[in-house]
Amino acid sequence: MTKDANRPRARGGEDGLGAPVGRRVVLGMLAAGAAGVAAAPFLQSAYDSTLGAAAQRDPTGLTGLLPGGGGFRYYSVTGSVPAKDEHTYRLTVDGLVRHRASYRLADLRRLPQTRLARDVQCVTGWRVPTTPFEGVRLSALLDAAGVRPEAKAVRFTCFDGSYSESLTLEQARRDDVLIALRMQDKPLGHAHGGPVRLYVAPMYFYKSAKWLSGITVTDHVQPGYWEHLGYDIDAWVGRSNGRDDAPTT
Whole-model pTM above 0.90? Predict the structure, then answer.
């Protein structure tokens, strides 16, 4: 007998590459993979809800460093934000207008809706490509209110009690500035600023104020929350805040 004949045979087969995988194992692996794919949307939704709720109660802002669904981050500048619904939500339009107004969710939904799909760009660097938003053009609400000749700007306030933003009147009348009711073809969730938020497509996302509750027409631009902390008032993507991001439109 040769020296090779005395060698023990490799376990699992003649090629010595390991035990063959049985049919049951393969089927089990496929079933587990399919279950994972089926459960992924529900797990992501649960993760997003948990992270969004945590962000609204996080005074440190550290939860904003964690990735959310689709690459979004969740930010709140207050410790908590009350939820609004069909019965409790109101959006007021006032200031230098001829006709003050108060809109319920049902009122806003009855108005003509515009859908935009643009990249969302945060000044901190992350971008979510081709994100659909749908809602009422801000210009339509301004026209209905009857803006007075001395008006120069629009100020936005939020029901978190702290956040604010501003646009010039010319910026506010752009076709790509919405009072958004839907995002990613679903009703705007609370964590994303729902039920209604501002959406300023060509500017960094901090201009798109969440939890919108007030639109006030003014005679000058009033710096918003982040502008008081050094951010640019005119926040065009790619042309402000010292960044060179590609424009979103």
Answer: no
